[in-house]
Amino acid sequence: MHDDGAVRVSQRADSAARVSTPAQRLLQYVPSPTAGTNTLSTGAFSKTVRDDKASFRIDGNTRLFGLLTGYYFLDDYALDNPYPGQQGGANVPGFDALTIGRAQLCRSGARRRSDRIR
After folding, report:
1. pLDDT tens-digit series, residues 26-43
2. Which among 98, 75, 76 has a CA at the least distance from the CA of 87?
């Protein structure tokens, strides 16, 4: 992909003589240029992001243990990039990259009554 967001497609007529027969048969699946003679520019497929986050906290005061606290955080995400050129993927439609991830944090704590600042 170039700086202007366009994908350069080589001239098919010139390169047809140097391309193997199986590759020539696959050329029908490569999109034709849409801007000029050798540039494919499309926004047909958009990048989508799903980002779900949740957290909760529990605090409790007990006679035996004092103050008890707990915290949990969860972040699930999915990124669907239809043109993943920077990630070693294809720069033509149909070969998108799906990146899925999860971040979690769990924390607990306790403070006895004798630890309190007066």
Report:
1. 888 877 777 777 766 667
2. 98
Q: Interior CA angle at 80 toward 77 and 86, to 5°?
A: 110
β strands within the chain, DSSP E: 7-8, 39-40, 48-62, 66-81, 97-111
Going by C-beta distance under 8 Å and a sequence separation of 6 or more, which residues neighbour residue 6?
35, 39, 40, 41
Position 91 scores a pLDDT of: 63
- The whole-angstrom separation of Cα 8 and Cα 10 is 7
Task: Please tell me whether the overall predicted TM-score, pTM, comes out greater than 0.90 for this model.
Answer: no
Given a contact cutoff of 8 angstroms between Cβ atoms, the answer to whether 73 and 55 are in contact is yes
Task: Find the angle CA(100)-CA(101)-CA(102) to the nearest 5 degrees.
Answer: 145
Which residues on neighbouring strands pair with residue 5, listed in sequence order? none
DSSP state of 32: P
Region of 19 please: left (phi>0), alpha (psi -120 to 50) or beta. Answer: beta
> pLDDT digits over 37-83, tens only?
776 666 777 888 999 999 999 999 988 889 999 999 999 999 988 77
